[in-house]
Write the structure tokens for this entry.
Amino acid sequence: DAKTTQPNSMESNEEEPVHLPCNHSTISGTDYIHWYRQLPSQGPEYVIHGLTSNVNNRMASLAIAEDRKSSTLILHRATLRDAAVYYCILRALYTNAGKSTFGDGTTLTVKP
Amino acid sequence: DGGITQSPKYLFRKEGQNVTLSCEQNLNHDAMYWYRQDPGQGLRLIYYSQIVNDFQKGDIAEGYSVSREKKESFPLTVTSAQKNPTAFYLCATVGSGYSYEQYFGPGTRLTVT
């Protein structure tokens, strides 16, 4: 499986933008980049995904490097409710779901 | 109301007993997954199933068993062979389509003493 690397932890101030990096140097051409987040004592929830182009939704933006070897999840204005563990994973297109592994993610702390 | 149900939310067992964790989904998804999470750690894949009557081992399958007799259900049995069974267990499904977005249940916290 193609692997991702994320920093263990990051801190942000409330109402400031947050940029969460992810490296995936062995990504293949058919891998989608997915981001999930997990609040304490809950299951992870989907945040955003992309293939090549930058993506925006109501929760966040995803910036993908031109060579696709890295990506950045952007929270435009962090709130205390954004404090969570953020996971970056790769999912292959056109496969029957298949093995889905998560790393340790990045623990985001938001300071008031 | 579509979703994934895991029951119970908290489960307590004595060491040496087998215990079965329930996972039910009404999303009509083919693929289902079981993960284990220890305090302060990420998710580790135990087993996954891409279709009824078929399943594959994940990264930490030893001491666990699963069955997939129905599309809606993917129960996980934690056997007495699992050395450190106390953990948070998460069930997930994957939808079809281009994105293969993964959906997670609320989890079951198992404590074995």
